[in-house]
Structures are given as structure tokens and as C-alpha cells.
């Protein structure tokens, strides 16, 4: 099939038709940012975005909250598993802060990602560590060719698509346990990635 842009507002005269069709935006890196970025991330007029002669970027921060509450429970359920009110509550899962953007040193821009997370809550990132703040993503994505990118730095290992994709894009509420039990979520190294068959298939490998 073919995706077609909705032009009904232009045809009805509600909006002025643009002189030039805007070029499609695309994320050059193999791994997406650790959190969802707004659709207007290329607009430098926003207070958390910037654009200079040699770089662009957007500053992001997020507080992740968890809350569990059972609206109702009948007598059969209470006799079987006990009072569920004991398991109700909430907590701060984590606080993330960082920036993503590009540097224009070469003909093809290099994409950078720098993100950290606080561990000072009941559930943080890498809770076994004693420090209160961890830099969990610092990566530079270098376009090698039109359809190939070299990613260098601390990043997600290209093993499981469930692990590589952001949690906001997961089809389920949480990742499966095996995604965290048998391999580290992030590691230091280099990942070479790209697409084949007219971008119908992607591949990645790293050391």
C-alpha cells in the first residue's frame, strides 16, 4: 500500500497550501530516546529546544509514577487471596533527565543522546548501586552511509526488540522478566545497524 497525506483542509480552502512539501523527519539512531519526544522537536522556538550553527538539541525531563488501587473485591476473592487493600499504594519509580540532538560537523549530522536517572526512590534504575544518580545513556550515532549507522558509547544491546524499544511503545504494560534477567539492559560498546529491502527489514550487531 501507499500512505497518502490528508489534503482535505487544503482542498476546502481552510488552510493555505504549502509551496514546498516538507521533507520527512527520521531518527538516525538505532535506539530511540529513553523517553518520548514531542512531534515538534525540530522547532527551536520552544523553551527547551535550541539550534545553533553547529548543533541542535532538546532538553527533556520526566517523573515516572506508579499507583495501584483495586476498585472493588467480592467476598469470594477476599477469602481466596485476602484483603487486596494491603497491596494498594503508590511510589515514584524514577526521575529521568537528559538531552538529545545533533551536531553538524559533517555533511550528515551526528546524533547524540545523554540521559541520567535518579536512584533516590523506592524503585530506581539499577537499584543495586549506591549512588543517587546514574548516567545510563551517553551515545553518539554516526551515519556511515545512507542506510547504515554506527553507534558508539553506553547504549542498549541490540539483542531483544522488547528491550531496545522505549517503554511507551511496548505492546504490553511491562517488559517480560527475561528481558532483564539474563542480560544487562545497557553496555559500553559499538553497534552497527541499518536497513535492507527498501527499509522493510532492519539489522544490528555490536561488540
Please give the order of strands in the largest beta sheet: 1-2-3-4-5-6-7-8
Number of strands: 8
Cα end-to-end separation: 37 Å
Helix content: under 10%
**Overall pLDDT confidence:** 77
Write down the domain tally.
Answer: 1
What is the 3D form? Answer: globular
Q: Provide the structure class.
A: mainly beta
The main β sheet shows up as: 8 strands, antiparallel
Question: Ranges with pLDDT <50 over ≥5 residues?
Answer: none
Strand proportion, as a percent range, falls in: 35-45%
Order of helices and strands: HEEHEEEEHHEE
In angstroms, what is the radius of gyration?
Answer: 22 Å
Contiguous helical run count: 4
Structural commentary:
There is one protein chain. This protein has one domain. The protein is 9% helix and 39% strand. The protein contains four helices and eight strands; from the N terminus they run αββαββββααββ. It has helices at residues 8-11, 75-81, 161-164, 178-181; strands at residues 49-51, 55-68, 89-103, 110-118, 133-145, 148-156, 186-196, 201-206. The longest helix is centred in the middle third of the chain and has 7 residues, at 75-81. The mean pLDDT is 77.
Amino acid at each position: 500500500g501507499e500512505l497518502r497525506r490528508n489534503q482535505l483542509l487544503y482542498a476546502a480552502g481552510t488552510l493555505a497550501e504549502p509551496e514546498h512539501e516538507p521533507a520527512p523527519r527520521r531518527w538516525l539512531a538505532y535506539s530511540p530516546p529513553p523517553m518520548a519526544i514531542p512531534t515538534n522537536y525540530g522547532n527551536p522556538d520552544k523553551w527547551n529546544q535550541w539550534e545553533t550553527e553547529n548543533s541542535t538539541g532538546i532538553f527533556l525531563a520526566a517523573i515516572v509514577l506508579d499507583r495501584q488501587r483495586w476498585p472493588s473485591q467480592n467476598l469470594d476473592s477476599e477469602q481466596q487471596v485476602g484483603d487486596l487493600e494491603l497491596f494498594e499504594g503508590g511510589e515514584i519509580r524514577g526521575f529521568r533527565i537528559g538531552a538529545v540532538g545533533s551536531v553538524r560537523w559533517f555533511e550528515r549530522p551526528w546524533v547524540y543522546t545523554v540521559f541520567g536517572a535518579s536512584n533516590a526512590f523506592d524503585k530506581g534504575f539499577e537499584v543495586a548501586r549506591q549512588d543517587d544518580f546514574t548516567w545510563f545513556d551517553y551515545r553518539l550515532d554516526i551515519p556511515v552511509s545512507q542506510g547504515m549507522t554506527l553507534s558508539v558509547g553506553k547504549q542498549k544491546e541490540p539483542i531483544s526488540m522488547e528491550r531496545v524499544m522505549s517503554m511507551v511503545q511496548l505492546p504490553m504494560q511491562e517488559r517480560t522478566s527475561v528481558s532483564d534477567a539474563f542480560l544487562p539492559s545497557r553496555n559500553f560498546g559499538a553497534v552497527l545497524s541499518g536497513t535492507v529491502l527498501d527499509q522493510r527489514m532492519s539489522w544490528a550487531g555490536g561488540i
